[in-house]
Amino acid sequence: MARRLTTGAELIRWWAGLTGLWIVLIGPVDTLEWAVGAGAALLAAAAACGARRVVGRR
């Protein structure tokens, strides 16, 4: 249970950081751009968590 919470918190931190970066780099953001950025950030966050987990096993 604790591992799932840790993984979930890590995913949320990655997602928030990447979404924030997307919004800053895009500039004026409308709803569609925010949704696309949030979706792309979620995919990238999942990849980052998976990559970190694989590297941690070495």
What does this structure look like?
This protein is mostly helical. 88% of the residues lie in helices and 0% in strands. The chain has helices spanning 2-26, 31-56. Helix 1 packs across helix 2 (31-56). The chain is elongated. The two termini are 23 Å apart.
Write the layout of secondary structure elements.
Blueprint: H1 2-26, H2 31-56
Helix pairs in contact: 1-2
SSE pattern: HH
* Rg, nearest Å: 13 Å
Shape: elongated
Structural class: mainly alpha
Average predicted local confidence, pLDDT: 89
Largest sheet: none
Distance between the termini: 23 Å
Could you tell me the number of beta strands? 0
> What is the count of helical runs?
2
Strand content: under 5%
Low-confidence stretches: none
Share of residues in helices: over 70%
Outline:
The chain is mainly α and about 60 residues long. About 90% of the residues lie in helices and about 0% in strands.
List keywords for this structure.
mainly alpha, elongated
